[in-house]
Amino acid sequence: MSDDKIHFNGSHHLIHDFKHYQTLYQQSIDTPDAFWGEVGQRLDWFSPYTTVANAHFKDNHEIKWYEDGTLNACYNCIDRHLPDKANDTAITWQGDNPDTYQRITYQALYNAVGKFANGLKSLGVKKGDRVIIYLPMIPEAAYAMLACARIGAVHSVVFGGFSAESLASRIKDCQAAYVITADFSTRGGKRIPLKNNVNKALESTSDIVKRVITIYTDGDNDNNGNSGSNSHDYSEDIPANTEREIAYHTLINAQSPDCEPAVMNAEDPLFILYTSGSTGTPKGVLHTTGGYLVYAAYTHEVLFDYRPGELFWCTADVGWITGHTYMIYGPLANGANTLLYEGIPTYPTPARFWQICEQHRVNIFYTAPTAIRSLMTEGEQYATGHNLSSLRILGSVGEPINVEAWQWYHQHIGNKTCPIVDTWWQTETGGHMIAPIPYVWDQVPGKATLPFFGVKPVLLDEKGQEITAPDHEGSLAFKHSWPGQMRTVYGDHQRFIDTYFQTFPGYYFSGDGAIRDADGYIRITGRVDDILNISGHRMGTAELEDAFNLHPKVAETAVVGYPHDIKGQGLYVYATLFKGETPSDELKKELVAWIREKIGPIATPDKLHFTPELPRTRSGKIMRRILRKIAENDIDGIGDVSTLANPAIVETLIKTRIA
Ligand code: WT7
């Protein structure tokens, strides 16, 4: 069945029409070495590659692209643009405070990154060393990433919303001897202490971390608009300098802006980014230099139809892959002007995004469905009050976009003229995989549509057979490698193989379900594994349950998702307590505080349901399907429970369900 399609007038600057896409796509699949060999030329290489793809979805599962080429990612994002663009804006930084912004030119970026890179070198940071970046959305976050790339250090950005314990576990996993942080993060007019969390994390990592670099945000650029903050006594939060501690401004002051970029092999690691899996602790997704950067730059240019001089705004946090690929590496490799926003969508008012679009004349705007839905509930008057005529292309990422949100975005933000690029991809894929190329084909709300060049999606049935008939749901997997693909799980290649290649041998399995219509358009139906997507944040149920179960009063938990109007999915937690413990509101609060400390505020349960027991099969397995149905309030969908070991508990759970 095909839906009504929406056509957008306009033409793409690279892809002439649908036929052109089809021709290029076919080439990319039939002769990937020729195709990607040519695309790879968009970067500057110190020494050229002579091979292109060397990737195996079997046996050793080694993925290599451009493996004998050498380059530097930072050089590609800055230096090579200087002859033409030294005075063009590279980063437009908008502070949380509406009155505070900066335009950072490519020359200024070169200087800041060079000084930072030399500073890192002076502390002993070397090629291959891991550096944790735990920063708010300030320009220094970009400087830090690029400075690492410049000297060949491997950065691992940890989202500022993660707790001290989450931070510590990441420091340990990648054995990071260096941490870059800030005293505070400022969001929505409030200050959130970051350095405090680092201090806590250091309690269990002091044998690993050698140096901590702290950016004092009250330094020479005061980007904090909130009065009252002056009365804060910082000395309470930030302990006096020890041997380990150094202030960013002290570190960079006397440094030269010129720092020779390290010569990196295409397959040298660029960064590690932790993401949740369906089992165990978060895994370190490793991306390397050449293939990742080629893919980031090329997808950014093609899928957003990015044209020189345009202002591109991706609202993601730098702590997520979207912030890496489409806020930093993709745009800067293309010599773009990329906007970094420190704050939140609703401060000082729910018009903030649109006010920023108007003020800076944003041309391409890329955000998440959860943000659209929450602004939608505030009313369109916040959008219609602003001049959004500079907008040309809109993007969506992170979860399936529901038709209502798509239509609202289309009508009130895009004025019915801006294509909406619904981009399906993952931390693991490095860049976009399935998305409409703007203007090149007509769109259907809620469908990510067709694959990008080189991407060969298949839908597999339970037996692992490829589904070819239209309108059948299957597991979304990929047949061939693409340059942006992750290379391994840091320190655990077996986990890489087990997670992505074991379910369907010979394929990369995404963990998502999808359905394809007669036109070949793909609609993503959501995760088919135990991964939740709460407001576009990815969380493993096992990881959450493990964290809850560590609480001394908790015997066992089961975490499921349920449909949530704004967040996409809400977090429903069933908890059983040890004998002698009694459920109470007090204990509820305690458990909420507990999980926020273990993981971070993003793991705050929406509903917490105490139950004397969980429904189980006779073999003792928790029946999650039933728990999901109860959480969704789909009582009729529960079906027959008579085969359970404890069928009576289902009735109790229904009666005590948290509405
Ligand atoms: C999971 C990956 C890709 C950067 C942000 C999330 C879901 C992502 C879409 C989309 C439907 C989407 C998938 C995917 N997802 N984009 N356009 N339509 N679902 O990265 O944290 O690695 O999460 O997000 O379920 O597997 P991530």
Automatic annotation (TrEMBL):
Source domain of life: Bacteria
InterPro entries linked to this entry: Ac_CoA_lig, ACAS_N, AMP-bd_C, AMP-bd_C_sf, AMP-binding_CS, AMP-dep_synth/lig_dom, ANL_N_sf
GO MF annotation terms: acetate-CoA ligase activity; AMP binding; ATP binding
Limits of the Acetyl-coenzyme A synthetase N-terminal domain: 21-77
GO CC aspect terms: cytosol
Keyword annotations from UniProtKB, A to Z: Acetylation, ATP-binding, Ligase, Nucleotide-binding
Keyword Ribosomal protein tagged: no
Identification of the protein by name: Acetate--CoA ligase
Organism field: Ostreibacterium oceani
Gene, per the UniProt record: acs
